[in-house]
Design brief:
Blueprint (H helix, E strand, L loop, with lengths): L3 E7 L5 H10 L4 E5 L6 H6 L1 H18 L1 H4 L12 H25 L3 E4 L1 E4 L4 E6 L1 E12 L3 E3 L12 E2 L1 H4 L8 E5 L3 H12 L3 E5 L11 H14 L2 E3 L3 E8 L2 E7 L5 E6 L1 E4 L3 E3 L6 H4 L3 E2 L2 E3 L11 E3 L4 E2 L9 H15 L14 E3 L5 E5 L2 H6 L4 E7 L4 H6 L5 E7 L5 E7 L3 H13 L4 H6 L9 H10 L7
Parallel strand pairs: 1-2, 1-6, 2-3, 6-19, 8-15, 9-10, 9-15, 10-11, 18-20
Antiparallel strand pairs: 4-5, 5-6, 7-16, 12-13, 13-14, 17-18, 21-22, 22-25, 23-24, 24-25
Length: 471
Amino acid sequence: MSNSYDVVVVGAGTGGYVAAIRAAQLGMKVAVVEKQQALGGTCLIWGCIPTKALLEHAHALKVVQNAKEWGVTIPAGAPAIDMGQVQTRKDKIVGGLTKGIEFLFKKNKIDWIKGTARLAGKGKVDVFEGQKQTLQAKEIIVATGSAARSVPGIEIDRARIITSDEAIHLREVPKALIVLGSGAVGVEFASIYRRFGGDVTVIELLPRLVPLEDEAVSAELEKSFKKQGIKSLTGTTVTKATVTGNSVDIEARDANGKTANLSGDMLLVATGRGPVTTGLGAEDLGLKLEKGYIRVDEMYRTNVPNVSAIGDVITLGTPGHPQLAHVSSAEGILVAERLAGKEVRPLNYDHVPSCTYCDPEIGSVGLSEAEAKERGYDVRIGTFPFGVLGRAKMAGESEGFVKIVADTKYDEVLGVHMIGPRSTELVAEAVLALRLECTVEELIRTIHAHPTFSEAVGEAAHATHGAAIHM
Ligand SMILES: Cc1cc2nc3c(=O)[nH]c(=O)nc-3n(C[C@H](O)[C@H](O)[C@H](O)COP(=O)(O)OP(=O)(O)OC[C@H]3O[C@@H](n4cnc5c(N)ncnc54)[C@H](O)[C@@H]3O)c2cc1C
């Protein structure tokens, strides 16, 4: 095997492996350096896939718990979860998908170079595993991703004070789980372990759960969590966490400065993720870093010629680059196409869907009501509850709503925010609507099949013009 490539990608997450496949499709000779034993990165091995597999188990348990309502008879005894089987099934799904990427690499003639990569100067990547080898690259794409990080005063011990990396592998349901942080990762695990039978408390520094979502969505989630027995402590800071024997003792302070003490058998720290550049040689190569993230322009070029970077490890210079699998993949495709000489346009980050798979699910895209007002739009709103829909009633999933944020002047859809059944699927229609700069009128004229959950989107559009049919 020759060590010379058109493109060497560092990291085989959803950014790196997708960039590699697209580059190979466009005729380039590609190698990917990955230090893990499997391909797929955080999303496949530690993130999207294992968490959603666990959530499907939680959903299955929910259906069984409500068997009586469905007319299904179950012999005496309360249904319970078998964590051994849950982990076996989840691992099988993860294993199958990572093997799938190996197959795609073979199909596209991409070399997987196993080991840890270090940028070794112009067009050179050293790979360490056993003996060092040096790859020559016309272009390098850095896609080294992110890792969980903690907050001051809390030391992760991976036994009692854990991150999502451990939370996906638990073989016993924690009796009392405290979750720090109510972003997507925090509320998804809250849903999983509450449904599995644990006592769950979510602590959030900001005044509301899922603080990046529209305020109405946050309020609905908090209401639903309360019904499910998940406690939410918003506007609360954890100042200290101490492990004593089998428990974690937590000191927290609320917005009024009042101190509270809590105790659980595990603390899950879900306060965000930081960039991975350790050992990469980024500084030695002269790559510009900002707070540890690799600074790129809107075409994902770093300050070093022929070195691009994508995914969780980058910053575009403005806060809030979304750390999402589909964002890293979109960036990977764009870079591969740019390197192949195709015409490419910058991504519009206002059109990135955000999906949170807690119970009830959240799907959103575009501006929230508050953001639209901040940007000076004359905003109008339309909301339609799932509870009114026949399809939602049949599924026994009638919580939540679809909310449309539109501009009064041109009738343009600026944002769509939904919480409730199938929201992570329904949001796709909203993404297309924003992409095509759709008006509310066009959404109204789009025929939604009956009976479907998607009728809520059509009805929310009618509601935005003040005339929902079924309300
Ligand atoms: C619990 C959890 C749930 C999530 N759920 C979702 C979800 O539902 N939907 C969603 O869109 N996103 C989700 N995410 C986020 C998503 O996983 C990330 O945004 C995505 O994986 C980023 O892809 P990436 O390619 O930038 O980096 P990563 O996936 O982190 O991949 C980076 C790869 O680079 C490798 N690497 C690093 N340094 C080196 C080196 N020097 N040499 C060789 N290899 C190296 C790493 O081993 C890793 O495999 C979730 C994340 C977590 C933690």
